[in-house]
Amino acid sequence: MTIVDRTALGSPAGPTPAGSADSGSADSGSADASGAPHPAAPAPALISLSIAGALNAALRDALADDPSVVVFGEDVGPLGGVFRVTDALHATFGESRVWDSPLAESGIVGTAIGMAMYGLRPVIEMQFDAFSYPAFEQITSHLAKMRNRTKGRVSLPVVIRIPYAGGIGGVEHHSDSSEAYWTHTPGLTVVTPSNPADAYSMLREAIASDDPVIFLEPKSRYWAKDTLVLPVRTAPMARAQVLREGADVTLIAYGPTVKTALEAAALAELEGLSVEVVDLRSLSPFDDETVGASVQKTGRAAVIHEAAQFGGYGAEVAARVTERQFFHLQAPILRIAGFDVPFPSPKQEEHYLPTAERVLAALDTWEW
Amino acid sequence: MNDVVAARAEPVRPTLKPIRLIDEKGAPVKGAERAGFTLPSPEVLLGLYRRMVMARRFDVQVTALTRQGRLATYPSALGQEGCEIGAVSSLGENDWLFPTYRDSVALLTRGVPPVQILSSFRGEWHMGFDPYEHRISPQATPLATQALHAVGLATGAKLKGDEVVALTLLGDGATSEGDAHEAFNFASVWQAPVVFVVQNNGYAISVPFSKQSHARTLADHAIGYGMPGYFVDGNDVAAMYAVTSAAVQNARAGGGPTLIEGLTYRIESHTNSDDPTRYRSPHEVAQWRQRDPIARLETYLRASGALSDALFDEIAAAAEQLAAATRDAMNTEPVLDPLELFDHVYATERPALREQREYLARELAAAEPAPADVSSTESISTASGSIA
């Protein structure tokens, strides 16, 4: 697999898609702030790192670089989080920077809002996707709206890390893909990395952002490793990335389904089909430009996600790409998604989750 | 387990009778009912009196303006001035207030100009003042959500080493919300410098307190969270001020949070669209009017010689001035910019929002009358007349 924009920090910024100047000046400013060069640091070494490890490194570096960053939530202290993403942070930075909170998600988000009002940059964790629901009101009614409500006087630089989606044999409430709840809420930025380099770079950028960010971590991919040099800086998180170039079809994926899309592309190649894979990375904002350019090239698109299809994020993708690219499209945009049922028990999840085979079968439904 | 229990100090248990320093007839209270609290100085009491009179006049004026259609809605605090003003007057300049929609007079007391307080109720914008200028969060419409913000801000200040206390106002109905429980618990576990003031005004819109809680008093909740709780006569501004001040000082000194229940009554309807005759008797309202917090303090201050006729007249005149200024402000139509809808949603610019902003700008430009039509006010009225 090819990560297009993996450039070690200190080198010139990596290649970005054409027109990246449109991505917003504040974004690039944030990225710069998050990755100040360390002149005294030893020569960067190539290391093998998982997504969980990259997130841990990003948190560690953010805590070290900015005294206003604090990390709290359930079990994020001495245990290091149930997925070990906050491993050793409590020991390194102490109780005043990294601590275990009472077990109440609305309380975690609500107090993070108050801390952000006082100038801190809280990075908080919802232990599992479905456990974020008690915090729904705080997220949608306050975190998302405070800046607008106060005419920009009160920014809330809060990052909510949420391990999400299935594929790890989790019992009920441990496998939801709730992204559409958050993307439907103006005021939130919603991103999801699919590889270790993006995990590091995007989390640093999210922490440096003055907007609240819902940071969705694909838990089935936590242990996926890659070799990289830290600190790594990839493309701005608002930009989608073409991970594999192709001429016939665009597969639009994010988070856990990026792997599915790449597998499907490899299988399709054996059948003579040239598939382009776009990793959205950011769900809100949506990178119309990168996706549009790909669809203009291929003329066909399918979007893949684990969440239930009805009212899902794929519906927004299909609608807005159709609105903008209708005359470039040779076929209707397909959605390969979860069924419209609650996420199943571990022994049934294989029937629910979109697979590469299911993607190929969907592509076969088009008239070619 | 025993070690954990032993490590915690026995919190103050709320009294069953509300703490009171001045009784309903305006006489100073002696003995146990004071629970060890002492009457504030005459200067402090006069200040509280002045603030309550201003608050009452403001409240009556805004309610009238709302009935005249100048405001979309206004939740009155008439009758709750003792609770509101007593609590908020205990705060220092660097302390923070986290109010609800009913606490406009608390904002007034902290110096927010009327036109800024009323921005949301007249339908201009969701709030109209700078939180950092006044150290007041936006008035919360959802119940109890702001209590968690208060705990977070106070904890943030504590982490930074600043001696800042956050006071949050809640209603009796709000204590049924999960966020109230989470705020009490987080504050106590983190020993946050927070003061929770529950204004028990008897009703959550129409639902009486008896259907809200089975606790003896709402201050009793404090015991379960391991913090001190005080049950106070909310219509005795002297008691509210004394107890809240002690709680603020305790929080500032590192003593953690306190829960205070002020027993009071909402004399007006919930908002102008409410009909309280459907759920409470005129007799009940009349009884509570007899316990008016302003009349009570006035009697005390006149009897003690602190309030002369001249001072009374001076304060009343200042209140009239405030009312007149509020009327003037509300009779001036605000100038709104529809394009501002897009300007504060994100700190980071979004191309899609920029496109929508441009769309609305084009729509507005197309709807604008040609320059000749706006050359005189006469032609505008003619134009609107012809549309009608």
TrEMBL record, chain A:
GO biological process: branched-chain amino acid catabolic process; response to nutrient
Keyword Nucleotide-binding: no
Cofactor or coenzyme needed: thiamine diphosphate
Location of the region described as Disordered in the Swiss-Prot/TrEMBL record: 1-39
EC number of this enzyme: 1.2.4.4
Superkingdom, natural source: Bacteria
Compositionally biased intervals (Low complexity): 8-39
InterPro entries xrefs: THDP-binding (IPR029061), Transketo_C/PFOR_II (IPR009014), Transketolase-like_Pyr-bd (IPR005475), Transketolase_C (IPR033248)
Keywords: Oxidoreductase, Pyruvate
SUPFAM superfamilies given in the database record: Thiamin diphosphate-binding fold (THDP-binding), TK C-terminal domain-like
SMART domains: Transket_pyr (SM00861)
Residue intervals of the Transketolase-like pyrimidine-binding domain: 49-224
One Pfam short name: Transketolase_C
GO terms, molecular function: branched-chain 2-oxo acid dehydrogenase activity; magnesium ion binding
PANTHER family: 2-OXOISOVALERATE DEHYDROGENASE SUBUNIT BETA, MITOCHONDRIAL (PTHR42980:SF1), 2-OXOISOVALERATE DEHYDROGENASE SUBUNIT BETA-RELATED (PTHR42980)
UniProt-recorded name of the protein: 3-methyl-2-oxobutanoate dehydrogenase (2-methylpropanoyl-transferring)
Protein species of origin: Herbiconiux ginsengi
TrEMBL record, chain B:
GO molecular function, one term: oxidoreductase activity, acting on the aldehyde or oxo group of donors, disulfide as acceptor
Source organism, top-level taxon: Bacteria
Coiled coil: none
Pfam families: E1_dh
InterPro entries assigned to the protein according to its UniProt record, in alphabetical order: Alpha-ketoacid_DH_E1_comp, DH_E1, PdhA/BkdA, THDP-binding
Residues in Dehydrogenase E1 component domain copies: 49-321
Keyword line: Oxidoreductase, Pyruvate, Thiamine pyrophosphate
CDD domains in the cross-refs: TPP_E1_PDC_ADC_BCADC
A biological-process GO annotation: branched-chain amino acid catabolic process
Cofactor: thiamine diphosphate
Alphabetical list of SUPFAM superfamilies matching this protein: Thiamin diphosphate-binding fold (THDP-binding) (SSF52518)
Region (Disordered): 366-388
Keyword Acyltransferase included in the entry's annotation: no
Protein name: Pyruvate dehydrogenase E1 component alpha subunit
